[in-house]
Write a structure and sequence with these properties.
It is a single chain. With 363 residues, this protein is mainly beta. The chain is built from four helices and 27 strands. The strands form five sheets. It has a 16-stranded mixed beta sheet that branches. The protein has a four-stranded antiparallel beta sheet with strand order 5-10-9-6. Strand 23 and strand 24 form a beta hairpin. The longest helix is centred in the middle third of the chain and has 9 residues.
């Protein structure tokens, strides 16, 4: 039995997310607390930069004589350019601090300067109820709402209002349509983006972008943007899947939480957008099936020549078939709306778990 990757597209579900500090710190909430998406739930200090200065070697003196030339002592605060040590006389030399920081150690002819720690705040990211906390810096939050998982993402997390920028999943987002009304919004387009679109979205201070596909050439530029991007269907000239575009369109104007984190496909965390609906009762959990492919499974094809097509498995031949590359692989017969089903290698299928509130017949 082959188990494929699953993509969750749910109009209303129960969602649990772990928020974890990068290092132990202070938890600011308790189990049972209600939190908002932008609320700080934990804080910590991240270690600052540091420099080890070989003072004795640079001055040309023995390690035992370094103390005679030091201009600072343990615990002293220094600024970039502060003179740390000075050698007078004919061979005049001086050593300056390369960073702002504090002298925290010295010995064996060297001193250590550490920059001040950087405060770090962990936000809830989604509105909901705190279920668990622990001393390691972990907070578990449960929310209710719509969930859409993507194929690829970038640039962390953000919260903004959804704004549909195209008239359909096959239409590209054009830079001329991005105006001041897009400030602070998560912009939704159908097909792949162009460089000018990314530049214009950054200029207008958008909170995020959601698109069906993204051409490979734009990945380096995307990774430098100050907001997250969610690619729903894959890298390349791929339109957004109809169910995803429909669900996003139904929720236009709603505040959403977008996360562009990329992790290996076999891990649970995927790039995603969550649309909170705290006043509605979820119809189920985001926990999907186990990825098994059986007749009747709704799937999305993730490789050419049918990449991006959505259909239903109508047959699972027991014998492997020879494909164009010459390899023999197990395939599924998939109905994608053509006259006859197409044969697709099992490894090229993504299980699509789609549950709509407005159109339950598609569940």
């Amino acid at each position: 039995m082959y188990h494929a990757c699953e993509t969750q597209i749910r109009g209303l579900t129960s969602i649990r997310r772990e928020r974890v500090l990068p290092r132990p710190g202070r938890i600011l909430v308790s189990p049972g607390d209600r939190v908002e998406a932008t609320q700080v739930v934990a804080r910590t200090d991240l270690p600052g930069d540091f420099r080890i200065l070989p003072v004795a070697r640079r001055l040309g003196v023995s390690a035992s004589k370094m103390e005679e030339y030091l201009q600072v002592d343990l615990g002293d605060t220094v600024q970039q350019g502060t003179v740390i040590a000075r050698l007078g006389g004919f061979a005049r030399r001086s050593i300056e601090s390369p960073i702002d920081g504090v002298v925290t150690a010295k010995g064996e002819g060297r001193i250590l300067i550490e920059a001040q720690p950087t405060p770090f705040e962990l936000h809830a990211h989604i509105p909901g109820i705190v279920l668990e906390v622990d001393d390691s810096g972990r907070v578990v939050i449960q929310a209710r709402g719509a969930l859409i998982q993507g194929a690829w993402g970038s640039n962390g997390e953000s919260v903004g209002v959804l704004k549909v920028m195209t008239d359909g999943p096959h239409s590209p987002l054009e830079s001329r349509s991005i105006d001041p009304s897009c400030h602070g919004a998560i912009l939704i387009g159908g097909v792949t983006l162009e460089q000018r679109v990314l530049e214009r979205a950054e200029d207008i201070e958008a909170r995020g972008l959601i698109t069906g596909g993204l051409i490979t050439e734009l990945i380096p530029l995307v990774e430098q943007l100050p907001f997250p991007i969610l690619v729903t269907d894959g890298i390349g000239e791929i339109p957004m899947a109809d169910p995803i575009f429909d669900l996003l369109s139904e929720n236009e104007g709603e505040e959403a939480s977008i996360a562009g984190h990329v992790e290996p496909r076999w891990r649970r965390r995927r790039p995603e957008v969550i649309i909170p609906k705290p006043d509605q009762d979820p119809r189920g959990s985001e926990e999907g099936g186990d990825g098994r492919l059986v007749v009747g499974t709704r799937v999305r094809i993730i490789r050419a020549p049918y990449r991006g097509c959505i259909g239903e498995i109508v047959g699972l031949p027991t014998r492997a078939r020879r494909i164009e590359t010459g390899a023999r692989v197990h395939c599924a017969e998939v109905d994608i709306g053509q006259d006859v089903p197409v044969s697709v290698p099992l490894v090229n299928l993504d299980v699509l778990r789609y549950h709509s509130v407005k159109h339950p017949q598609h569940a």
